[in-house]
Design goal:
The chain is mainly beta. The protein is built from no helices and eleven strands. The strands form two sheets. Strands 2, 4, 5, 6, 9, 10 and 11 form a seven-stranded mixed beta sheet that branches. Strands 1-3-8-7 form a four-stranded antiparallel beta sheet, with no helix packed on it.
Length: about 120
Amino acid sequence: QVQVVESGGGVVQAGGSLTLSCVVSGSFKSDNVMGWYRQAPGKQRELVATAATGGTIYYVDSVKGRFTISRDSAKNIVVLQMISLKPEDTAVYYCNIRRLGAYTYWGQGTQVTVSS
């Protein structure tokens, strides 16, 4: 049984900062990709950032230079540091861990609201 638990969401003013954390527990293959998705009301779920065990990092263009993803593979923790937040960043943020062709696990989501 695998559990994915996010924390750190909240309400901030435009230009503010938040840090999201995700802890994954259970039994799973250690070679994987951990990342963050988000879904705003009325929009499709969007991939925000990923960090693979091999060190490869990905960011969607809209967050480059503002968000930083990092992971501690030994502790199965992935962190998303967000600065210079914009109202369009408002969404439910979901933590994800996956191994292509093997498994995908999702957290319950944490709400990020950025006021203008």
